[in-house]
């Protein structure tokens, strides 16, 4: 018998069960775990999700456009790629080599493009700080995988990461990375706290116990550190930033998220936050 968590995961795993096409010959190569290269590994994972074409393509392209801009600030040599999972529960998850999974539910629950940027930046933080690859390598060595091919290792990594819980320290690092990254973009840093507020509001509506069993992926929407604490910490950090930058002008992008039309395509006049302006939030 499957638990609700396992049955939601099954749909995500189905992607991985597909036959490997000849163009993916590299997948059948046997790779010693110690010499596994994270960049190449990310490519192997991405090929599978790309072939699966899950979720709404306009939404996926919208996400990728934003991620392309964010990844200009990344230090690791990965091609950051985002894939949509057809799940209504809001969440996101990072895989080694810069593959980021986002559920369709996340796009429904967040209030603005700036909040979406903060979630994507958090996931990038796990990759940039090496948390994902570290977790996967640990599990590979622990499970003593025999003569693994690149394709098998990629599947294994996805299995590990979908169930993985990062430590509290790693979550804090990813949140701090997200806050520092959003400051380098045109977006309002208050959106880091704002994303936590949107998720808190969602979990209040849905009832926590019911939801937690159905989570297809477990990263952003973890309850440790508690969402309320993360919210308060970054609301405060943004308040201080705004106090120190009274002349700043930052973008929110609620309409951009609704229409799946990024800031980089169209800047909407009513979406700027300026101190004293009527659409000020936070
Ligand atoms: Zn995280």
Automatic annotation (TrEMBL):
InterPro entries the UniProt entry points to: Mito/Outer_Membr_Metalloprot (IPR051156), Peptidase_M48 (IPR001915)
Cofactor(s) listed in the protein's UniProt record: Zn(2+)
Pfam families associated with the record: Peptidase_M48
GO BP: proteolysis involved in protein catabolic process
Swiss-Prot/TrEMBL keywords: Hydrolase, Metal-binding, Metalloprotease, Protease, Zinc
Peptidase M48 domain segment(s): 59-230
Origin superkingdom: Bacteria
Entry's cofactor comment: Binds 1 zinc ion per subunit.
Protein's UniProt name: Peptidase M48 domain-containing protein
GO molecular function list: metal ion binding; metalloendopeptidase activity
CDD domains registered for this protein in UniProt: M48C_Oma1-like (cd07324)
């Amino acid at each position: 018998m499957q638990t609700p968590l396992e049955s939601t995961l099954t749909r995500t795993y189905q992607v991985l069960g597909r036959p490997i096409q000849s163009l993916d010959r590299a997948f059948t190569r046997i790779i010693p775990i110690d010499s596994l290269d994270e960049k190449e590994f990310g490519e192997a994972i991405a090929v599978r999700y790309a072939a699966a074409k899950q979720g709404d393509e306009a939404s996926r392209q919208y996400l990728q456009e934003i991620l392309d801009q964010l990844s200009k600030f990344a230090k690791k040599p990965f091609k950051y790629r985002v894939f949509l999972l057809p799940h209504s529960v809001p969440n996101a998850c990072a895989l080694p080599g810069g593959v980021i999974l986002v559920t369709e539910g996340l796009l429904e629950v967040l209030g603005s493009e700036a909040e979406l940027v903060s979630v994507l930046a958090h996931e990038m933080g796990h990759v940039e700080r090496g948390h994902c690859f570290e977790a996967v390598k640990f599990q590979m060595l622990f499970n003593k995988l025999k003569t693994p091919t690149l394709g098998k290792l990629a599947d294994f990594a996805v299995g590990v990461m979908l169930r993985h819980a990062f430590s509290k320290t790693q979550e804090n690092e990813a949140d701090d990375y997200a806050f520092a990254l959003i400051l380098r973009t045109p977006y309002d840093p208050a959106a880091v706290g704002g994303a936590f507020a949107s998720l808190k509001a969602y979990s209040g509506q849905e009832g926590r116990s019911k939801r937690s069993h159905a989570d297809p992926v477990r990263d952003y929407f973890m309850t440790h550190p508690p969402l309320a604490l993360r919210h308060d910490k970054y609301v405060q950090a943004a308040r201080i930033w705004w106090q120190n930058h009274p002349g700043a002008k930052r973008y929110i992008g609620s309409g951009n998220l609704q229409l799946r039309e990024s800031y980089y395509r169209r800047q909407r006049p009513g979406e700027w936050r300026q101190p004293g302006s009527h659409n000020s939030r936070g």
